[in-house]
TrEMBL record:
Job description of the protein: The globular domain of the protein is located near the polypeptide exit tunnel on the outside of the subunit, while an extended beta-hairpin is found that lines the wall of the exit tunnel in the center of the 70S ribosome. This protein binds specifically to 23S rRNA.
GO MF annotation list: rRNA binding; structural constituent of ribosome
Protein name stated in the entry: Large ribosomal subunit protein uL22c
Originating organism: Kadsura interior
Main localisation: plastid
One Pfam family named in its UniProt record: Ribosomal_L22
A cellular component annotation (GO) from this entry: chloroplast
Encoding gene, per UniProt annotation: rpl22
Subcellular location field: Plastid, Chloroplast
Family stated for the protein in its record: Belongs to the universal ribosomal protein uL22 family.
An individual GO BP term: translation
Length: 150
């Protein structure tokens, strides 16, 4: 994702870079209401990787299965692509966005039709490691500042 601005007669492109320990998994066009998926995502945001898998495994909702697969995929991406440990991993970002709505018409009595709307959603899970994140905060001197930033 990049941003652009017009400075001094030229376009200045700023690139937002993700941390090297961040691993992302994305599921698109899941046939489910975004509201129902957000109900599950709010329960797992900020938790550790293993605790998230246990919570999702025991949840009785249909959305939990899709999110479980996505969190497991993000953990596998972290292990395989970046060589990160699952023990130190946690869910740093989890979001649900609305997707396309599939619209169909069902025939009803007396020649009428009734619209059927099937909402879809896009789910994004970002896994990060606690150890490296805390180390960066310590190096940026955030722990040593007082309440007023002096």
């Amino acid at each position: 994702m990049g941003c652009s601005s017009f400075i001094g007669g030229r376009w200045n492109f700023m690139i937002k870079r993700r941390s090297r320990t961040e691993v992302k998994a994305l599921a698109q066009y899941i046939c489910m209401s975004p509201h129902k998926a957000r109900r599950i995502i709010d329960q797992i945001r900020g938790r550790s990787y293993r605790q998230t898998l246990m919570i999702l495994d025991l949840m009785p909702y249909r959305a939990a299965y899709h999110i479980f697969k996505l969190v497991y995929s993000a953990g596998a991406n972290a292990r395989h692509n970046k060589g990160l440990s699952e023990v130190e991993s946690f869910i740093s970002k989890a979001e649900v966005n609305g997707g396309a709505i599939v619209k169909k018409f069902k025939p009803r009595a007396r020649g009428r039709s009734y619209p059927i709307k099937r909402p879809t959603c896009h789910i994004t899970i970002v896994v990060n490691t606690r150890y490296i994140l805390l180390n960066k905060l310590y190096q940026s001197n955030l722990f040593n500042r007082n309440k007023f930033g002096l």
